[in-house]
Amino acid sequence: MGAAEKKVFIKTYGCQMNVYDSERMTAALGAEGYAPTATPADADLVLLNTCHIREKAAEKVYSELGRLRRLKDGRPDMLIGVTGCVAQAEGAEIIARAPVVDLVVGPQAYHRLPSLIARRVAGERPVETDFPTEDKFDHLPDASRARRAPAAFLTVQEGCDKFCAFCVVPYTRGSEVSRPAARIEAEARGLVERGVVEITLLGQNVNAYRDPDGVGLAALVRRLAAIDGLDRIRYTTSHPNDMDDDLIAAHGEEAKLMPFLHLPVQSGSDRILKAMNRRHGADDYLRLVERIRAVRPDMALSGDFIVGFPGETEADFAGTLALVEAVGYAQAYSFAYSARPGTPAAGRPGVPEAEKSERLHRLQALLVRQQTAFQAAQVGRTLPVLIEKPGREAGQMSGRSPYLNAVHLLAPAELSGRIVPVEIVATSSNSLAGRLVSA
Ligand code: SAH
Ligand code: SF4
Ligand code: F3S
């Protein structure tokens, strides 16, 4: 199509599932003659793939739309679309609040993007937030067509039936749906043919994965582990209640399954866990961690925490600190509770903002100490590192350890996509420095 080719710019917010969806939208739009571009300035179509998880995340969309409005003033035929979880949650409200927006499409309807663009060109400002009966995955080209990097995401499960009292995801992503294992395997093989050696299986509740034939996550992992050329498998995000015996056993048996697990617990107080509708206690979680470490002693754990959930007292918060002390996290995310419209906890009397941020600081200080200790413990070890891309400085490459730490080292660019032994020589705030070891 040459010079007549149109360009699309997608800005991605939120979780890895949005990253994956953006890749699939890029692939779908590629089939419609849109080439990806790295800046909105020369784009014919700009998509904001949004996140609704906390108020701040959702508000970012409107400030970005403000910036885009100025750009569009000089380029009236540029199209602007809002996709993702804000699109799903707010739908037509976005069209009303932001006149610059041409179309709105929720996560379950991305395969309808080309027809929505056509409807916009015909004069409509379409909003598509249905949960269609057809499966978008049957109608979207593989993300693998848009992939170049050695590590890739692959969505295997979407949606959530857990309804934690604080969370918008069950509303924005709908109920749990698992893709058939055979499809996933085919997509994984496609990725491996394009040079991918590490796949992270994605799902809002990935360990609740169960396909229409009854294949669970452990069986899926074993099936993918049989693919030659696929060397590393990860999955995220897991719910503690869905870590079944088979999956725990797989961590002890399957060498390709990496020793890093993101296992959010949110709080260490039973009272708060109950109010959050998490359906497990702090001890259940600690026992689970013990069982996982029994089969995989070097398992690095990651978590998510919410502080200042409605009703959280200083004693409840002390329970969270105690749980963190007991687990010892390699890495973790922590957030001040943000009331989300439409969720059960939204109407409950809140913890004062000052208390929330004071607790958040204390928790984060502890989590940073643990992360620092975890990284310091890697120094002196030789780890297999997947070399992924050029680093910041000349001659440098960056890669990932089995524990998902970023590792920077001097290495030839040809090593990209290879897993090589690297001696860890130093640690900084968010990454490790290594030295290539001749094998
Ligand atoms: N499905 C995953 C993660 C969902 S969202 C899970 O079950 O853990 C990612 C994280 O955002 C959550 O784990 C939670 O810690 C945080 N989060 C979700 N809703 C929030 C809210 N209303 N306020 C603050 N943090 C929230
Ligand atoms: Fe949200 Fe809870 Fe579902 Fe995770 S398990 S997506 S926190 S409702
Ligand atoms: Fe955000 Fe939606 Fe992911 S709300 S965290 S983009 S599932």
What does this structure look like?
It is globular and about 60 Å long. α9 packs parallel to α10 and α13 runs parallel beside α14. The chain has four domains: 123 residues, 3-Layer(aba) Sandwich (Rossmann fold); 117 residues, 2-Layer Sandwich (Transcription Regulator spoIIAA); 92 residues, Transcription Regulator spoIIAA (2-Layer Sandwich), CATH 3.30.750.200; 55 residues, OB fold (Dihydrolipoamide Acetyltransferase, E2P) (Beta Barrel). It has 14 helices and 19 strands. β10, α9 and β11 form a beta-alpha-beta unit. With 439 residues, the chain is of the alpha/beta class. It has a six-stranded parallel β-sheet, with helices on both faces. The protein has a five-stranded mixed barrel with strand order 15-16-17-19-18.
User: How would you name the CATH homologous superfamily of the largest domain?
Assistant: Methylthiotransferase, N-terminal domain
Number of helices: 14
Q: Could you say which small molecules are bound to this protein? A: S-adenosyl-L-homocysteine, iron/sulfur cluster, FE3-S4 cluster
**N- to C-terminal distance:** 47 Å
CATH class of the largest domain: Alpha Beta
